[in-house]
Amino acid sequence: MRRILLVFLVFSGFLKMGTAQVTTTAVIPEPKEFQQLGDERFELTGIETDTTTRFDHPDEYRLTVKCGKATIAGNRHWAECTLTQLVDENGYIANVEVHDWAAYPFRGFMHDTGRNYQPVSMLKETIDLMSFYKLNYFHWHLTDYPAWRIECRVYPQLNDPQFQRPGRDEGKFYTYDEIREVIAYAKKRGITVVPEIDMPGHSTYFKATFGFTMDSKEGRMVLEKCLEEFFSEIPKSDCPYFHIGSDEVWIEDPNGFMQWIENLMVKYDRKPIAWDPGLPASDKVIRQIWNEAAGSNAAASEKAGKYLDSFVGYLNYYDPMLFTSRCFLHTAAAQATPDTTKALGGILCLWNDVRVDKKENIALHNGMINGMMAFAERFWNGGNAGEVENENLPTGPLTTAGSRLAHFEEKISLHRDRFHMGKMRWVANSQMEWQVKIDENEAFTSYGGVIDLDAFCLTHAINIGDTALAVAQTTLIAERDTIIEAWIGFCTPARSNRNGYGIGQGAGWEGGCQCFVNGKEILPPKPWNEPGEYDYHFNTWGKPEEEQPFTDEQLYWMRQTAQIQLNKGENRVEIKTPKTYNGLRWSFAFIPVHTCPDGTVTEMEGVRYKW
Predict the structure, then answer these.
(1) Of 41, 143, 152, 338, whose CB has the highest number of CB atoms within 10 Å?
(2) For the chain, which residues make up each domain, given as ranges?
């Protein structure tokens, strides 16, 4: 029953972190005000609504539980999500008082179904996940290079598979009934759908269909009729926002095209959103900032008009272990203290430029669930976890940011085990301490199960050429002689681009990288299924290699773990990671993990890190 949501049950408690004691809930995102009144627990017997208390903010709520009876004022849905996380596995809950609200009004998640179609059932699963973590906008990227995924009655040829990219779900699109179904499903869960038709770029299918581009006079006529049909089918009450794209394209008259499309948005009374960088838009358009390069934050704060933060990064671009910590350490909307005058919030994006053949692997291959938890935490509460020099390099567990990250990882682990068992390939890893040396440069300390060597060099002002060698060492302390498991991987490629070493050859790891424990070389646990494949030292966008789907073997967190013998006491781990060409995503991963008999993963016990 949706009112109680007892399908999701979680342990609520007080967690210990590193060397410090932290009193808090296991709720994600963390409530602003939380108080537990005693340790006694009662069976949850009902929920009442307080209709007398009013709040100024639509996300704000107050939850009070006394002797098993819950009272909710304000946003009932978000309060129920919190209540669900507080109820234990037996349906019992302590007496609590919670007062909570969101720092930003716009907390979104984007799926790209233009490149890789997803059935409505999968979209609903994503919407359920979003709702559980209080994200309230589903950015639905409905068109991209391969295809137009919207039913088109005025120009049915847009749905004709002959004009779409072969192998990319040709002929697959969403009927208007399905679009309305998704919108209604999301609305019941506190989520507004933001459709996107990317214009005038990312539209190879359009030129293949009509023989002219979107920005041409003929193209605008076609687009106007398509948009008129869409808006007649999907009223403003269902979709007040509409995303017009505008990125990664050169056209002869960018100002004219953008003024034309903005006028259409005014005509149909929709609030337009556009990518930034993108074609020039007026201050009336909400800018979704996606460029992560230096200066993006400055652009966000200096330009006029409202904006959304997508420079937190893309789920598919980073190693999932690294992205989770990066997102948590990120400064939301480039603001240490939330100010919604211009900053509306952010959108977490998941792109799959590379063809996907098993859609059920999208979440696992990109760390969607753990990444979404970190994003929800950051944009519900705003600010950051503490100042860090580089968001891709976690700081030590004795720093403010490092200790908060370690504590948040404990919460992710609790949620993984209670809600998402079998659907996540992630374990806590931020407290590993490494001494990393690049060529003959000075060694520096770095933290985490994944070390981004490009970020490491940038932070420590280490200049390297096209080739270099990183040597990293850490110490594992075992309670007894034992065999542990570990994920080991190198130079993880983005799932939007295959630029990387590919799969290892012979008995070794990818790219000739090496791992040693107590002087003994650790090799992959079994022969490779596709030795030497996918070794592409170039960006694969728009190339044939982009049509080769990722398999589990290519992603270390999906592979079988390596078995490693440890001695009681200290054990020295050494990693050697060569960089052999310019443009390589240079990194390594070494993460102790425990594989349960059912194939699920948890943290390794009986082993700790020395720091």
Answers:
(1) 143
(2) 15-100, 106-381, 432-609
Question: pLDDT class for 296, splitting at 50, 70, 90?
Answer: low
Cα–Cα distance measured from residue 412 to residue 393, given in angstroms and rounded to the nearest whole number: 19
Percentage of the chain beyond pLDDT 90 is 92
Residue 130, pLDDT above cutoff 90: yes
Amino acid letter, residue 591: I
Integer CA distances (angstroms), 160 to 205, 470, 541, in order: 10, 51, 24
Name the strand (E) or helix (H) holding 132.
helix 120-132
Rounded to whole angstroms, the Cα distance separating 120 from 182 reads 7
- Residue range 106-381 forms a domain whose CATH class is alpha beta
Cis? peptide before 277, omega within 30° of 0: yes
Residues making up the chain, counted from first to last: 611
**C-alpha pair distances (Å), 122 with each of 125, 127, 145, 454, 515:** 5, 9, 22, 35, 38
Query: Which pLDDT value is given to residue 18?
Result: 31
Q: Strands 569-579 and 192-199, how do they pair?
A: unpaired
Token readout for 508 is 């070794």
Question: How many C-alpha atoms does 252 have within 13 Å on its Cβ side?
Answer: 5
Nearest partner of 83 among 93, 448, 341, 74, judged by Cα: 93
Question: Quick one: average pLDDT of 266-274?
Answer: 98
302 has a pLDDT exceeding 80: no
Question: Which stretch of DSSP H or E encloses residue 243?
Answer: strand 241-245
Please, is 526 exposed, middle or buried when counting C-beta atoms within 10 Å of its C-beta (0-12, 13-18, 19+)?
exposed
Tokens of 415: 């949620």
Q: How far is it, in rounded angstroms, from Cα 76 to Cα 569?
A: 52
Q: What is the CA radius of gyration of the chain?
A: 25
Tokens 């960088």 -> residue: 277
Report whether pLDDT(252) > 80. yes
Report the distance separating Cα 587 and Cα 450, nearest Å: 7
Structure tokens at 132: 């559980």
Considering the four listed CATH numbers 3.30.379.10, 1.10.1740.10, 3.40.50.300, 3.30.420.10, the one that applies to the domain covering 15-100 is 3.30.379.10
Query: What would the pLDDT profile of 485-536 be if each residue is shown by its tens digit?
Result: 999 999 999 999 999 999 999 999 999 999 999 999 999 999 999 999 999 9
Contacts of 166 (CB under 8 A, 6+ apart): none
Give the CATH fold of the 432-609 domain. Jelly Rolls (2.60.120)
- One-letter amino acid identity for 249? V
Q: Contact, 80 vs 47, CB < 8 A? A: yes
